[in-house]
Amino acid sequence: MDYLPIFIAITAAAVVLQALILAAMYLALRKVTARVESLAGEVSTKVLPTAAMAQAMMTELRPKIEAAVTNISETTSLARGQLERMDVTLNDIIDRTRLQVIRADELVGRTLDRVEETTEMVHRTVISPVRQLSGIMHGVTAGLGSFLGNRRRPRQNVTVPQDEMFI
């Protein structure tokens, strides 16, 4: 039996089948290429100008943005310095105020001590002798009144000045 013509026929059919597959692939590739070309056209007409405009804006705005960042950085540094100086000044003011309050407290304390000492001294040197003198005067008056026979009515509710009334 002769198998050679059968193999040649099968091989020829396979080659024709491959040719048809390659032709179908070629047609499909042409359609895809046409779609890609139309999309590339749209991209080049719509997206590329937008990208170019964005690039131009970035190029134009970059120095302004850098200047703004530099200004903000300098402003922050200045503000930090001012806050540090203000902190030092406020601490100094608080310390001085604290010292003045301590001095005022000491002054008021010394003044109150002196007022108390003065009150005691006035009490010892003025009020006590006045009381004693008043007592002596009442005694002398009563004695003279009895002696001369000029008796007056005895006083009722005679009071001696109190310390609270004097102050």
Set down the secondary structure blueprint.
Layout: H1 4-148, H2 163-166
Question: Can you give keywords for this protein?
Answer:
167 residues, 89% helix, rod-shaped
What does this structure look like?
The N and C termini lie far apart (157 Å). This protein is an all-alpha fold and 167 residues long. The model has no long low-confidence stretch (mean pLDDT 87). It is rod-shaped. The protein is built from two helices and no strands. The longest helix has 145 residues. The protein has one domain.
How are helices and strands ordered from N to C? HH
Largest sheet: none
Structural class call reads mainly alpha
Q: Could you list the spans in which at least 5 consecutive residues all have pLDDT below 50?
A: none
Mean pLDDT comes to: 87
Count of domain modules? 1
Binned, the helix content reads: over 70%
Shape: rod-shaped
Taking Cα atoms only, what radius of gyration do you get, to the nearest Å? 61 Å
